[in-house]
Amino acid sequence: xxxxxxxxxxxxxxxxxxxxxxxxxxxxxxxxxxxxxxxxxxxxxxxxxxxxxxxxxxxxxxxxxxxxxxxxxxxxxxxxxxxxxxxxxxxxxxxxxxxxxxxxxxxxxxxxxxxxxxxxxxxxxxxxxxxxxxx
Length: 135
What we know:
By secondary structure, the chain is mainly beta. It is 8% helix and 34% strand. It has an 8-stranded mixed sheet, covered by helices on one side.
């Protein structure tokens, strides 16, 4: 399957967003890398995908989580059983608590696995907007 997601920082969907296409054979880890790269954020922070849009919920898929107690972000997107119009979140950088809303815009059959890509975007957001004050 091929998924098209509209992704935006919570509360900024009109002024700042990215539309991303990704194969269902990719993992949530790959989706996170595409989202973070699309917004030009620094990588390396912990994150979780919040399927019910609540941070730290036991049903979330967490990076570097305890595999015995958490669902892993190594899960393939196709296995999530997403539907058109569904919304879930990416909680990124547990210190700064960035929340990205992910809206499933389209799910289509795909004959082959395609490279994840950003097909549309608008605006920008600074990951660390206050850093200029300290320089």
